Amino acid sequence: MKKTLVRALKRFVAAGAVVLAAVSLQPTSASAAPAPVVGGTRAAQGEFPWMVRLSMGCGGSLLTQQIVLTAAHCVNGSGNNTSITATAGVVDLQSSSAIKVRSTKVLQAPGYNGTGKDWALIKLAQPINLPTLDIATTTAYNSGTFTIAGWGANREGGSQQRYLLKAQVPFVSDATCRQAYSELVPAEELCAGYTSGGTDTCQGDSGGPMFRRDANGAWIQVGIVSWGYGCARPNYPGVYTEVSTFASAIKSAAATL
Question: Which residues form the Peptidase S1 domain (predicted)?
Answer without folding.
Answer: 37-255
